[in-house]
Amino acid sequence: MKVLKFGGTSVGSVKSILSLKKIVEKEARQQPVIVVVSALGGMTDKLLYTAQLALNGDQGWKTEFDAMVDRHHKMIDTIISDPSSRENLFNTVDSLLDQLKSIYFGVFLIHDLSEKTQDAIVSYGERLSSNIVATLIKGTKWFDSRDFIKTERVNDKHTLDSELTYKLVKKAFADLPRVSLVPGFISRDKTTERTTNLGRGGSDYTAAIIAAALNAECLEIWTDVDGFMTADPKVIKTAYTINELSYIEAMELCNFGAKVIYPPTIYPVCVKNIPIKVKNTFNPDNSGTVIKQKAENDRKPIRGISSISGTTLITVTGLSMVGVRGVNRRIFTTLADNGISVFMVSQASSENSTSIGVRDQDAKRAVEVLNKEYEKEIETGAMFPMHAESNLATIAIVGENMKHTPGIAGKLFGTLGRSGVSVIACAQGASETNISFVVEGQSLRKSLNVLHDSFFLSEYKVLNLFICGVGTVGGKLLEQIKSQYEELKERSRLKLNVVGIASSKKAIFNRDGIDLNHYHELLEESEPSNAEKLKTSILGMNIFNSVFVDCTASKDIASLYQDLLEHNISIIAANKIAASSEYENYAQLKQTALQRGVLFRFETNVGAGLPIIGTINDLKHSGDKILKIEAVLSGTLNFIFNELSAKVPFSETVRRAKEQGYSEPDPRIDLSGTDVVRKLVILSREAGYRVELSDVKKELFIPSDFFNSTEEEFWKNLPSLDESFEQKRKELEAQGKKWRFVATLDHGETQVALKAVDHNHPFYNLEGSNNIVLLTTERYKEYPMQIQGYGAGASVTAAGVFANIMSIANI
Ligand code: ADP
Ligand code: ASP
Ligand code: MG
């Protein structure tokens, strides 16, 4: 014999109820089955809500009630085709609904809703649904569970009288029909005979009690997910079904919010060693989960994660507590006497403070009764008044394998720390099957995600990317991410999830990943954004393993870095503004990244995709010292001086640089050396020198008044320089030399200047817009290290940004 329980969603729609019918009929061919059903999905909430409307004198209760009638009628009309069965069922259902209506009307008239009345109201959900299912499945016998599920009043709560109930269940099912149909959840007080219930979610418990009383072969819980999963699939999209788990593990997970099974359900079947199967009504072929005494060892350190939000931590603290006996006894007795349940306790070994986790709704009362209990001690100053912190969340990681695996707590807290989640309190039972801890409510989702990722999906590392700027570099980067996605997933076990994209005016977000084929259209359709809004949205998403990628040249965006880093978001910047801003700012950003365990990387600030900054850092880390840097860092200026010839005058080379996209939109930024100065400052800082922009000596090749006029005047006056350039060029040509705009760091001194180099110099043959860097270090002294290649261009820059992103994936 088996007991099959179907939850609200399994009887909530025509599709699900027909699936239920098939499942039950198939099982009943093998053996007798007892089917326990919940109310139609969402019905219990509606019954309670409507009762509140009636209590408040709100006429709206009628509309809600009519909707309930309509829902049940429609369901019957659709699924019961036989006219006489249908008529009988309508009679039963309508008489129940009439009673319900009268109760609501009474509540409405006298403005009173006692617990007794509410219990009566809420029982109609299961009474209605069970009659419908009993008619749907031919040859079924319907039972009123109130006749055998008996409760008594203990601590002001309905509590099962197991002994009596077991006796009555055995009697009720002495002759076992092929299919028995039982409403879940509802019960009757053994003394007063009033209708009671087993608490929200209690249909699971009804089924377990029957299974235990009758020594069923198995208890099956049919629901709307593929079994007991590693975490709540509504929160963690990557949660997956656990094949097997032990009673202890299931109990620990359910006690901490795994709603899939009502916690009291497990004990009665565990005692009888009856396995529980959790299966999906919508996907009956899936094997689901088996809960039993000894579950298979899946070699994972933990079996599942669960959580409860809306928790409060009450701290009982005072100097008199140290070594005093009985303080804890008084705390727990006081709370128990007042019907407040405690789900977590943490006490430091110094014994002067005990933290207790309770539900938010119990917090106020808990503080009151504890303050009262310790009134005298508080008055004398030996103890402090209770301190309560609400809106927290409690998370539990559970698994019997924890006993044998060292380092679980380390991994747990390390993972949370790297994501910027601070743990407010924690507790581990000596059984070592559960570590529970408390975090801010707003960190709950993020904590669950990072933990799930690190304990269950370690085969994939996920990076959540916010890409800011969709111009040439940002656009190319998105293309590269799209084309490499599968390859990285397969080969490197890395998922690059683009969760945010911002242009200069708009932004889109999707924590499950943006469709990179259509981000342009999605941006078009989205709301206007700006830097501040962008920051608010990113921080609001509070997503784990986040990386902010700045492909803009915007000062406003650069000013967000500090806040983002403080929230444990790594920064990859193609934007040079932050790294070349005041030294203090640069240093603080680096310091914050270090403290937070995230990265602030800006490799492409110098030499686009060339590995210059990374190399300098690698040398430094290995104990080398950078003595001198000589570099041609402006692709634009190099292009200009390479183009210059007898046929192409200076002004024309500048024009070409602009037209071919080598220069900044206003080429004076290049000609004034501003861009090179920034790059030199960044390199010098990375090499270990404290340098500001103003420290760099500049020897420019264009008179300064060219930079003070308007852009239009600049272009007009530019040809006036052609003659002198041509003259100098000829002289250089005669000497076999070429011009290069060279940036130099020499023992801390920085300079940019136009220099003539001969054919022996490594800079002489620098083609097109290439860059070159010579690093003289203590180890590379006689022959400096040389890095050379394209120093500009969207593809190579995007590739450099990509490389920086990959460096985060590898930490
Ligand atoms: P029913 O109406 O069938 O009793 P419930 O809503 O009470 O269904 O329980 C099923 C729900 O439990 C799932 O839809 C899921 O969102 C939630 N849930 C929470 N934690 C887990 C978990 N670890 N595994 C599966 N489901 C879970
Ligand atoms: N219908 C009840 C509830 O929603 C009992 C159950 O579904 O298990 O809480
Ligand atoms: Mg349930």
UniProtKB/TrEMBL annotation:
<dbReference type="GO" id="GO:0004412">
    <property type="term" value="F:homoserine dehydrogenase activity"/>
</dbReference>
<comment type="function">
    <text>Bifunctional aspartate kinase and homoserine dehydrogenase that catalyzes the first and the third steps toward the synthesis of lysine, methionine and threonine from aspartate.</text>
</comment>
<comment type="similarity">
    <text>In the C-terminal section; belongs to the homoserine dehydrogenase family.</text>
</comment>
<dbReference type="InterPro" id="IPR041743">
    <property type="entry name" value="AK-HSDH_N"/>
</dbReference>
<dbReference type="InterPro" id="IPR049638">
    <property type="entry name" value="AK-HD"/>
</dbReference>
<keyword id="KW-0067">ATP-binding</keyword>
<dbReference type="InterPro" id="IPR002912">
    <property type="entry name" value="ACT_dom"/>
</dbReference>
<dbReference type="Pfam" id="PF22468">
    <property type="entry name" value="ACT_9"/>
</dbReference>
<dbReference type="InterPro" id="IPR001048">
    <property type="entry name" value="Asp/Glu/Uridylate_kinase"/>
</dbReference>
<dbReference type="GO" id="GO:0004072">
    <property type="term" value="F:aspartate kinase activity"/>
</dbReference>
<keyword id="KW-0547">Nucleotide-binding</keyword>
<dbReference type="InterPro" id="IPR005106">
    <property type="entry name" value="Asp/hSer_DH_NAD-bd"/>
</dbReference>
<dbReference type="Pfam" id="PF00742">
    <property type="entry name" value="Homoserine_dh"/>
</dbReference>
<keyword id="KW-0808">Transferase</keyword>
<keyword id="KW-0915">Sodium</keyword>
<dbReference type="InterPro" id="IPR001341">
    <property type="entry name" value="Asp_kinase"/>
</dbReference>
<keyword id="KW-0520">NAD</keyword>
<comment type="pathway">
    <text>Amino-acid biosynthesis; L-methionine biosynthesis via de novo pathway; L-homoserine from L-aspartate: step 3/3.</text>
</comment>
<dbReference type="InterPro" id="IPR036393">
    <property type="entry name" value="AceGlu_kinase-like_sf"/>
</dbReference>
<dbReference type="InterPro" id="IPR054352">
    <property type="entry name" value="ACT_Aspartokinase"/>
</dbReference>
<keyword id="KW-0028">Amino-acid biosynthesis</keyword>
<dbReference type="InterPro" id="IPR045865">
    <property type="entry name" value="ACT-like_dom_sf"/>
</dbReference>
<keyword id="KW-0521">NADP</keyword>
<comment type="subunit">
    <text>Homotetramer.</text>
</comment>
<dbReference type="InterPro" id="IPR036291">
    <property type="entry name" value="NAD(P)-bd_dom_sf"/>
</dbReference>
<dbReference type="Pfam" id="PF03447">
    <property type="entry name" value="NAD_binding_3"/>
</dbReference>
<protein>
    <submittedName>
        <fullName>Bifunctional aspartate kinase/homoserine dehydrogenase I</fullName>
        <ecNumber>1.1.1.3</ecNumber>
        <ecNumber>2.7.2.4</ecNumber>
    </submittedName>
</protein>
<keyword id="KW-0791">Threonine biosynthesis</keyword>
<keyword id="KW-0457">Lysine biosynthesis</keyword>
<dbReference type="InterPro" id="IPR019811">
    <property type="entry name" value="HDH_CS"/>
</dbReference>
<dbReference type="InterPro" id="IPR001342">
    <property type="entry name" value="HDH_cat"/>
</dbReference>
<keyword id="KW-0560">Oxidoreductase</keyword>
<dbReference type="InterPro" id="IPR042199">
    <property type="entry name" value="AsparK_Bifunc_asparK/hSer_DH"/>
</dbReference>
<keyword id="KW-0479">Metal-binding</keyword>
<comment type="similarity">
    <text>In the N-terminal section; belongs to the aspartokinase family.</text>
</comment>
<dbReference type="InterPro" id="IPR011147">
    <property type="entry name" value="Bifunc_Aspkin/hSer_DH"/>
</dbReference>
<keyword id="KW-0511">Multifunctional enzyme</keyword>
<keyword id="KW-0418">Kinase</keyword>
<keyword id="KW-0486">Methionine biosynthesis</keyword>
<dbReference type="InterPro" id="IPR018042">
    <property type="entry name" value="Aspartate_kinase_CS"/>
</dbReference>
<comment type="pathway">
    <text>Amino-acid biosynthesis; L-threonine biosynthesis; L-threonine from L-aspartate: step 1/5.</text>
</comment>
<dbReference type="Pfam" id="PF00696">
    <property type="entry name" value="AA_kinase"/>
</dbReference>
